[in-house]
Known about the structure:
By secondary structure, the chain is of the alpha/beta class.
Amino acid sequence: MKNSNQNPGLYIHVPFCGSKCAYCDFYSVTDRNFIVRWLQALKKEIGLYQNDFAPFDTLYLGGGTPSILPDAVLAELTDFIKTQLPFSPAAEITLEANPDDLSLAKLKLFQDLGFNRLSLGVQSFDEDILKFLGRRHTARQAVHSLDWARTAGFNNITVDLMYAIPGQNAKAWYKNLQQALKFKPEHLSCYQLTLEPSTPLGQLVEQNRLQLWDEDNARLFFLETSLALAAAGYVHYEISNFAGDPDHFSRHNLKYWQHVPYLGLGPAAHSFLGNKRWWNIRNLEKYCEALNQGQAPLEESEDLTQAQWQLETLYLGFRTNRGVDLELLKDYPNHGTVLKQLRESSLIHEQDGRIIPTREGFVVADSLPLLFQ
């Protein structure tokens, strides 16, 4: 096992939303009356891990919708985290925000609390698509939030966008992408719409009342996105993620993709250390009850075998422009034949002893590890 000597990351799951989006499968609730209970339980969970991790060099408040928290609660939370857990200097501190929650004053508060990276869940600048997705904000609010974020002093902004949405053609998506680029964000995350059966839109697909784009068209969306952002000067460093330069890669998410330790706190949060992964109860009330009884709110855990760790390393590596160490692939008897086929198909190239997926390779990245089994 590797990477255990690198600084870990800290993730806090804020499980509250103003409303549930029609596509979202992340755990959240809309009852804000639980906020105080959640905060007190979270403080107890933090106490369980005070001596288990080296200083964190990233903090990520995700959700849910962290920006929905009352100012006083957010201030209390950030102060408690910083006083109870160790952080290295110049840590990357990210907060996810919904444009509907933001004002210039609120964004200045985020700055004052120490957040130096803002993740804006824009998803689209198209009003019809926003309504289809069930988003709370409008296109105008998205524009205002980006303007205000700059005025407030944020110089590390990432924008979430979604493509291959039913009713959205390539021209409309390109226009949407260009709108985002007008604000010169340091980072963009561009995701293809995928749906779990449990979501409202997923249920429509199951009932044949909604049709998603087929694989060929989704592939074209992906490739055009990558080409357009490359032309704008962005580095396509992970399947769904683009940065203006390596200094603005998501340091927190890199930990997930490189098997670096991370601690996840809050309901449904996941953690990883050494060869062990564990995750919390996906239920806010049960999460609070467990901690109030002095118990860790664990749902389950697993110890990765060397074979599992190695397969995950391939899976995660082929999703990034860092690729996979060639020496790791040599453990598989068929590696020579497979690599030859992938080169001939223009799906990979070799650089500095690593096997790197090409743009077309990213399209099929999730299937590449299975070829070596």
